[in-house]
Amino acid sequence: MAVMGSEILITPDELAELTARDERVRILDVRWRLDRPDGRPEYLEGHIPGAVYVDLESELSGHGAASDGRHPLPDTPALERAARRWGLDDGDTVVVYDDLKSLSAARAWWLLTDAGVQDVRILDGALRGWVASSHALERGDVVPAPGSITLTAGRLPQLSIDAAAVLARDGVLIDVRAPERYRGEVEPVDPRAGHVPGARNLFAGDAVDESGRLLPPDALRARFEAVGARPDQPVGVYCGSGVTASHAFVALTVAGFAPRLFAGSWSAWSNTARPVAIGSDRFGGEDAKSLS
């Protein structure tokens, strides 16, 4: 399934106009943070009118062995049940947003696009952009009538842990965590510090501007090319547990690349006996040391 970068984002004004003329627009609120995973309290205090709350931990993630990572992809039947709870039907336009510069909303975009939903958009600028554009919020819960959508996964390219290791050696694998986590100076969550040997670091948070909107395609392309990525070569992406990597997947797509997602990400890698690299790679100014 080819995804065009121009088909991914929607502005607050465009969303307001779309909802006014199309009753088949479904809006999903995907508020989540690593330090505050339950975003429902904030959702209840104020959300885009009609938006349904989506729980990233239970509905956009599976549960398996530690070697699967902290947020493995959910299986398709579970995702389909959740999507029906959100009121989704086949043919709906779906818009996802969060209050985290779209870093968590992108996980919903990736899963639904991979599962065959034809029109999934990310609200550019997130909730902050909606409010800054003088659009109203509503309080309380939204419980839609159950939907009947059917999902079939497998439309977006992924990397297994073995394929990620090969791509880091022979192609370009980008680690989008904070630089200090990539270098192995700190590791607040996962069992081992460092990065996949050969992976290159490019912090996901720098792909958006001060207002939380994704950078223009040319600026994104320059960022990725600076760490060796080329549109005609394989490029993969990972983060801590696969959530933020979905946003990097979006940024790469908008920039004209054809990325692959290592969904297990560092949380999966660090729970195996695979080698770990400490320090910076040649793009960061020094050689990395691999530690078994």
UniProtKB/TrEMBL annotation:
CDD domains noted in UniProt: TST_Repeat_1 (cd01448), TST_Repeat_2 (cd01449)
Stretches assigned to the Rhodanese domain: 21-139, 167-278
Keywords tagged on the record: Repeat, Transferase
Annotated GO MF terms: thiosulfate-cyanide sulfurtransferase activity
PANTHER family named in the record: SULFURTRANSFERASE, THIOSULFATE SULFERTANSFERASE
Protein name: Sulfurtransferase
